[in-house]
Amino acid sequence: MPCFDRYIGIDYSGAETPTSSLKGLRIYMADRASLPHEVLPPPSPRRYWTRRGIAEWLVMQLSGERPMLAGLDHSFSFPLRYFEKHGLQYDWPSLLKDFQHHWPTDENNTYVEFFMDGNRRTGDPSWFRLTEQGTASAKSVFHFDIQGQEAKSTHAGLPWLQHLRMENR
Questions:
Q1: What is the pLDDT along the chain (169 residues), one digit of tens a residue?
Q2: 143 and 90: one domain?
Q3: Given CB 3.0 to 4.6 Å as the disulfide criterion, which of 68, 78, 151, 162 pairs with 6?
């Protein structure tokens, strides 16, 4: 018997700003009775999802009473060395709050690249999370501008996780 009524998968790559929309941002949903299908963005002049639009849609989905599982294809945290370097507590709420302060990529017309140069609140591309240390194919969340990287989507997505937490209290 499934534990959840709905399953949501979000392809989070592609857009550079919270308000720009690109076809790389996609949502798929399934429930106990139907196969996965793509969830289209609300009607608007834009044809594709934005990160802000996805966050607002997820807030609505999470406010329901039906249990659901949502997955986003970016990292939800950083290597332990990041916490040590910046004197952060080893907990997710502290990371999200601190990160959003230093990388406010959830603001309008904001690119991850705006915060890369000179931002001391970052990590080394050789740092890996515990889950990545046992594989040769992992890419560090601090390794930007390489094929298959997840650094930009992670840096763009973490502030939206903070937003989801604050909206769903």
A1: 678 999 999 998 754 545 555 667 899 999 989 999 999 998 888 788 988 999 999 999 998 888 999 999 899 999 999 999 999 999 999 999 999 999 999 998 888 889 988 899 999 999 999 989 988 889 999 999 888 788 999 999 999 999 999 987 7
A2: yes
A3: 68
155 and 91 fall within a common domain: yes
Residues 110 and 38 both lie in one domain = no
DSSP state of 130: G
The encoded tokens of residue 66 equal 């039906």
- Bridge partners of 26? 11
Q: Strand, helix or coil at 34? A: strand
| 23 falls within a domain | yes
Closest by CA to 79, choosing from 146, 13, 131, 116, is 131
Nearest to 143 by CA among 151, 135, 153: 151
Last residue of a domain, one of 72, 96, 127: 72
Is 135 within a domain? yes
